[in-house]
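Model: Ready when you are.
Researcher: Fold this.
Model:
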Amino acid sequence: MSASLPSFRAYVGLGGNLGDVRATFQDALARLADTPGIAVETMSSLYRTRPVDATGPDFLNAVVALQVALGPRELLGVLQGIELAHHRERPYRNAPRTLDLDLLWFGGVVLDRPELTLPHPRMHERAFVLAPLAELMAQRPAAALAEGQNPVLPAAKDIEAYSKNQGIERLNGSNP
């Protein structure tokens, strides 16, 4: 990524419950890392999640932190292209999927457009987002405070309660 371009921290949620999800996540991360203007910082552990407002087998979920020198709509286009490369279909809302890449947060930008809402409108309701996001932010607390580009999360006890209620299980040693 060019040092002369401004960059923003973005958080992207990864999810899937069809096919070899771990391999799909590995490929998605490689594609992100190979995209000009995107640097992959770190990824959370994997979390197994019961479907929320969805059907099918359990999901694997994670969150990745990026530094991006793209705009939020351009990043969304990259994410949707990676989903399509993995045969993501949208036959109905919350259908089972090979790969779901949700732009959760983009450097504090607030948008409310038909194609993109930032921060993600349901981010604070979903333990499968909150637990891995909290994990990432705990890994970099000084940077999180200094940069001011990170979301404010519920208290740890609340995230734990959401996780228990929504059937979230952290998988040990689980980076893809």
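Researcher: Now this one.
Model:
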Amino acid sequence: MSDHTLPEVEPVTDRVHRNSWSANLERPVHEERRDAVVTGAIEAVEHTAPGYHVNLVTHGAHGRPESYLGPVLHARFGDSVDWTYVDRCGCGGHVLRVQVAER
């Protein structure tokens, strides 16, 4: 297991996505635990093939995600990812698009 795994939280995905996709980080556990959002975001980026992006759809309870996910993503992935805040969802959440660089 990776050092960011939360065994009590269901994984965001179980496969590598060789296309652009969206990760749902708006479940009740994500509202209650920001660490579950962070863990899910890391997991989603790790499961996104180079050259594609993942839209991290985060729970609105934690505010705009670039403030707390940006530093984590930079520390974990460095220049191999680039992120952009997209917008607020109609449901109150937020979308952060993370592009994974070609290797």
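Researcher: Key takeaway?
Model: Residues 21-100 form one domain.
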